[in-house]
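Field reference: sequence -> structure
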Amino acid sequence: MNWQPLIEFLVYAGIGLASFLLWWVVYDHVLTRGLSTGEAVFGRTPNVAVALDVAGGFLAMGLLNYAVISGPRLDSFAHDVEATALSLLGTLALLGVLRMAIAAGLRLWFGHKRDAQGDEVSLNNELFRQRNLATGLFSTALYLILVAGLLESDLLDLSGYRLEATWNMLGVWLLGLVAVVLHSWSFLGLGWREHILAESFDRNNTAAPLSLLGFLAGVLLLNHQLLPPLGEGQHLLNTPAHWEFLLLGMASVFVLRTVLYWLLGGLLGVSVRTELLARRNAAWGVLDGAFVFALFLILIALIA
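Structure field:
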């Protein structure tokens, strides 16, 4: 009987568990200082919005643990374990810094604007005090973008192309930002004054970020499938054809989604935009995100 796989599983699972606990400590004592994550999650009225934000870090640790373990092996199991632990530690630190930067950026964006309850809009306030589920879902979408970028990075230079991998990471984050803006403009039909941030933070509209999650998942998975293997001087930010294909893919999905909406409008007599924005219909937000993601899966299967 070969016990090596079981031993390796226990070791890597232990590293993963340690990273989860460390993220909880960083989140509770640094990212949300002055607020109690334990009370929010385990108190008398559990806060799902906070749980979604914490889960984003757990998802990041789990996916990155998977990426490192499934990557190329080093010369010994001990070195593999060391590389995994160091990668997760570096990623956790970077994720914490990025989360603080996002919170600060959102505070600057909203300025002294107040939400529907009269409080100044900020990430932690919407999550902890307002229990804004839409904010929690939007935060999950941001984590999805951050994790997709970090999966392309190579902090320890195991591939020998750390610079190219770093440019890929930054390119994925840029793609995520572009996708959020395009979703707000095209899929939700909003503009500069009315946008996904207003829906997620001010109006507590869970339908909008649910739709966004399906779109982002499809775009990021398509990009990952399209990325060529790392090579000298080859990365996401210097391949215009790659971006052209992504934009055409997103446009094609948008057209097919519009056709579906016309059909639904004719058959059911409903306005899908009204369902997403005016009625804040979370049920349709889920279906909209699932349909869009399914369309991307067809495209991904064809190029795999």
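Note: The chain has a mean pLDDT of 87.
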